[in-house]
From TrEMBL:
This is Uncharacterized protein. It comes from marine metagenome.
């Protein structure tokens, strides 16, 4: 188990998409007007708009 965990951490660090400069952050997406609302069970709903036509997206997180 320790071997698997160590190996997965090493691969995560090696294959991560790190920015080469702290002054130039990595662009992750183009969503606008993100909103987050907590639920009573400890989860959250995240909503955002995307694309030029403003497609609406909603995601539930546990």
């Amino acid at each position: 188990m320790k071997y698997f965990l160590s190996l997965s951490i090493i691969f995560t660090i090696c294959l991560g998409q790190w920015s080469s400069s702290p002054d130039d952050p990595l662009w992750l997406g183009d969503g606008v007007q993100a909103q987050v609302r907590a639920t009573s069970d400890g989860g959250a709903y995240v909503a955002w708009l995307s694309d030029g036509n403003y497609h609406v997206y909603l995601q539930h997180l546990n």
